[in-house]
């Protein structure tokens, strides 16, 4: 297809040169003119074919660039979502450990230092952690799957 395109382009360029010279004269490069197009209709048709070929090639390049950009964006989103997931897992593990340590510690004669949180503090810790986890995942889901 490319060689046909090049031949057609070369013929059009010769035809354009032909229009500036009289029939039968030599071209600038010394070659004799060969009339490959019988009429101006064939010339116009060839010009339209080349224009359409260039336009489709340009559209194809745009589509390729758009798909590459979408693939890059997809990979970025997946990587960010994985990091966010592990951040929230760590956050939940720390919260669970705080609750467990708070629940285990009872003051005894042997161990005067005991980690203790009041019930109100524990309820606030669990409530805000739950709210943050749900909220962050909702934000991430909206970013991963935008409404177009």
Give a verbal description of the structure:
The chain is an all-alpha fold. The protein contains three helices and no strands. The chain has a domain at 70-144. The chain has helices spanning 2-20, 40-104, 119-144.
Write the layout of secondary structure elements.
Blueprint (H helix, E strand, L loop, with lengths): L1 H19 L19 H65 L14 H26 L4
Secondary structure: helix percent: over 70%
Shape: rod-shaped
Main sheet record = none
Count of β-strands: 0
Query: What series of H and E elements makes up the topology?
Result: HHH
Summed up:
This protein is 74% helix and 0% strand. It is mainly alpha-helical and 148 residues long.
Keywords, please?
148 residues; mainly alpha; 3 helices; 0% strand; rod-shaped
